[in-house]
Write a structure and sequence with these properties.
The radius of gyration is 13 Å and the shape is globular. The chain starts with a strand and ends in a 13-residue tail after the last helix. By secondary structure, the chain is mainly α. Strands 2-1-3 form a three-stranded parallel β-sheet. The protein has one domain. Helices cover about 55% and strands about 10% of the residues.
Length: about 100
């Protein structure tokens, strides 16, 4: 299973071919999303302005997504690698390899 960050789904919803191809290559049956991602998809637009004010800090939703990936021993697919790469024990999934 590959846990996908919210940005992957946002890009897929925008018809970004890279995101759509990544999801197809993983296989929809192998894709996981956390409850936090669902929450971000529903309410993300409301908090975007506030989140950009707090740059260079780990946001609570990202921390929970990372914790889910680590605890469930899943790789995380995200376009926001900078938000996660410094987290100990996180395993990032790179579809372009």
């Amino acid at each position: 299973m590959i846990l996908c960050d919210t940005d992957i789904f946002i890009e897929a919803l925008k018809n970004n071919p890279r995101a759509i191809d990544s999801l197809r290559n993983i296989g929809f049956e192998n894709i996981a999303l956390s409850a936090i991602t669902v929450m971000e998809l529903y309410f993300g637009a409301v908090n975007k302005r506030e989140m950009t004010k707090i740059k260079n800090r780990l946001h609570i939703p990202d921390a929970l997504i990372a914790a889910t990936a680590i605890c469930q021993r899943m790789e995380l697919l995200t376009y926001n690698v900078k938000d996660f790469k410094f987290i100990k024990d996180i395993s990032l999934y790179y579809p372009d390899k």
